[in-house]
Amino acid sequence: MSFDTTGPRSGYAIHETSLVTLRSSPPKERSDAARNRVAVLAAAAELFARDGVEHVSMDAIAAAAGVGKGTLFRRFGDKAGLAVALLDERERELQETILSGPAPLGPVTSTDKPDPRERLRAFVDAYAHYVLAHLDLVRMSETAAPGARYRIGAYRFWHRHTALLLAAARPGDDADALAHVVLAPLSAEHLHAVVAEQDADRALAAIDTAVTALVGEDVGGKGTRGS
Amino acid sequence: MSFDTTGPRSGYAIHETSLVTLRSSPPKERSDAARNRVAVLAAAAELFARDGVEHVSMDAIAAAAGVGKGTLFRRFGDKAGLAVALLDERERELQETILSGPAPLGPVTSTDKPDPRERLRAFVDAYAHYVLAHLDLVRMSETAAPGARYRIGAYRFWHRHTALLLAAARPGDDADALAHVVLAPLSAEHLHAVVAEQDADRALAAIDTAVTALVGEDVGGKGTRGS
DNA sequence: GACATAACCGGACTGTAGTCCAGAACGGTC
DNA sequence: GACCGTTCTGGACTACAGTCCGGTTATGTC
């Protein structure tokens, strides 16, 4: 539970009521600690790439990085934390686009204000692609410890974003609760299983179908279907 | 992976294309094996009730049952398998109602043929209640081993059922893929997290909102909403 | 540059899931 | 009731995640 809070990582924190960027705590990090952090991340990335995320033990990573196990766990908490650190960079990109990038993902558009329905659909699709692209790593970050998915800051970020869009698209509904439902099929565990059984395109299409049914196609909003 | 297939357990198997009841393999079970199975299940149930599912180790169960660890794993495969065996009874009840019980859950109605939309909503609600009632145990059965949820026969049963109803309610869509999406927010891991953060009623209401948006209210089918 | 203090380091240690296999127990046969 | 192939048993064994703490090293101060 005691986590690394010193390093220049974990880019975003979520303000209670709105999405806010916030560089994490003052970059006070001892030089040896910094050296080790880099060594660990490099070693982990290499071992994961070589042997597959599932077959790499924390001992092996510590050994490859030339670092003790204690150091490894002190900095990253657990296996999930290590995965989060490795994903941080790429995740940040997506987060930045969502916060301040061009439509449909972000809020920036030349004409009028962006449509929350389209933004939601675009977000779900983009996020699903992100998870699929780093499936094993994300899966580890979500399942290494029970309940990990819902504890990490990133999930709260995605949840908040989803809830804000839902609140705009479906006023009157319980956006916070609905957002969890929308995010459920985007868990790495779920996508992993579905993709293995069917294939990615069908899974993505089905998710889009469900989201579209929930919020509708676009502003013209003619319900969703008419049987 | 090598599983117990002898005992009178695991009530249903799923035929490739339709829902079929099928008592499992011939009840050929050696008397010592039967004795031990009962002892293990009884010991597990008691320890779980006393100390909480999370805090009971397989060693402890084996010891309490007066049985070796090897026996425990041979019969139940892993922790998830043990949970499945314990849930079997209650799950079977729900399955039976769905297969041959009264509407809205089952297909039996006095008037005309049952409406798949209502049946789907009823099923989702009933299943969610079932999971919530045995949250820790179901959670263990789904998360003890990675991907466990999607391997156990029960999931395939629920998935098949959901897919059949979806195929009737939304012809033209990819029912198999959509069924996975519908089941995603019903995972124990997900419900556990959401219930801890909000509460059960909001979670249930949100799930119902989403399902209703997907299939509509009833046969009268006037789309879902019109902004 | 010596000192004090806080932060960090690493490997021995613990607890648990899951494997393995030599031998015991079963149950059918003559 | 003795024999035999099959199935089951149980505890020693491995591998891994995660904890703990005495010793070490960086950094700010005089």
From TrEMBL, chains A, B:
Organism of derivation: Haloactinopolyspora alba
PANTHER family xref list: HTH-TYPE TRANSCRIPTIONAL REGULATOR RUTR, POSSIBLE TRANSCRIPTIONAL REGULATORY PROTEIN (PROBABLY TETR-FAMILY)
One of the record's GO molecular function terms: DNA-binding transcription factor activity
Domain HTH tetR-type: 34-94
Key words, A-Z: DNA-binding
Keyword DNA-binding: yes
Top-level taxonomic group: Bacteria
UniProt keyword annotation of DNA-binding present: yes
Pfam family, one: TetR_N
Protein name, per record: TetR family transcriptional regulator
DNA-binding region range list: 57-76
